Amino acid sequence: MIKLGVNTVLFKTVSFAEAARLIKICGYDGLEISAIQGMCEHLNLDNWKAQEGELRSIMEANDLKFLSTEVASHDFTRLQKAFEAAAALGIPVVNVGPGGPSDDEEAFKRTVETLQKLAEMAEPYGVSLCAKAHVGGAIYNTPTTLRAIREITSPAFGIDMDPSHIYRGGEQPEESIKSVISSMKHIHIRDCTGRQPSPGHPFKQMCGSGEIDLFGYFKAAVDANYDGPVCLEVIGPNLRVEESTLVAAESYGYMNACLKILGAR
């Protein structure tokens, strides 16, 4: 069964305990705990050991699983702490962005070199480092993703395939996923309207509210026997807690229905 989760950045205005409670009410199996410095640090990497007991208690009380964490940084010191925290808390995937800019050979080489070193750092901890194609990034479409897969040799490295970035990059995610799925260890998911750089207001990012063929995307994933996490990642302005809950609940209903039809839930 494919497990569904939410990146807690969607609930950045409330405590982790409240975010977990609401995520469980919406029906999710687990969550991606945000460790994005300056945006949402439900996981404080500088103080994670002091948080460990509380985080475990909150997850157990809500019968949720840690599916991943997003650090969104290439800082080696922060990633070292992230790998340590992930190993201790049973978090299987640490997600980062690719860095940028696009169509810059030197930037691409630096990105690959950095991700290779970071993935090697992750290996002893038994966790995976994942990066995704990102609008404006050095890795930003299927060709650059495939090149990164060829050049990053650490077994701890994986692809986090986000259909919204691929769609806004001018591709059709339901087709693009087929060529990278063998290297995928995580899915960040959201919808969007239009192919502009920004995914738009969070209400436009709710799964099923936009233009992406997410059912076709899920079908391609299920057909290829993908069994990793799928975590809703909605970025944007602060929302009232009831609005964040609406985005999470609507998206869960859509994704759960798609995956039930496909026999993956």
Question: What this model shows, in words?
Answer:
The protein is globular and about 45 Å long. α1 packs parallel to α10 (241-261). The chain has 265 residues and is of the alpha/beta class. Helices cover 44% and strands 15% of the residues. The chain has helices spanning 16-26, 48-61, 76-89, 105-122, 142-151, 163-168, 173-180, 202-205, 214-223, 241-261; strands at 4-7, 30-36, 40-41, 65-70, 93-96, 128-131, 157-160, 184-189, 230-232. An eight-stranded parallel barrel has the order 1-2-4-5-6-7-8-9, surrounded by four helices. The protein starts with a strand and ends with a helix. The longest helix is centred in the last third of the chain and has 21 residues, at 241-261. The protein contains ten helices and nine strands.
Number of strands: 9
Low-pLDDT segments: none
Termini separation? 5 Å
CATH fold label = TIM Barrel
- Mind summarizing the main beta sheet? 8 strands, parallel, barrel
At CATH level 2, the architecture is Alpha-Beta Barrel
Q: Could you state the order of secondary-structure elements as H and E?
A: EHEEHEHEHEHEHHEHHEH
**Structural class from helices and strands?**
alpha/beta
Give structural attributes:
single chain; 265 residues; alpha/beta; TIM Barrel; 8-stranded parallel barrel; 10 helices; 44% helix; globular
Architecture blueprint of SSEs:
Layout: E1 4-7, H1 16-26, E2 30-36, E3 40-41, H2 48-61, E4 65-70, H3 76-89, E5 93-96, H4 105-122, E6 128-131, H5 142-151, E7 157-160, H6 163-168, H7 173-180, E8 184-189, H8 202-205, H9 214-223, E9 230-232, H10 241-261
Parallel strand pairs: 1-2, 1-9, 2-4, 4-5, 5-6, 6-7, 7-8, 8-9
Antiparallel strand pairs: 2-3
Helix pairs in contact: 1-10, 2-3, 5-7, 7-9
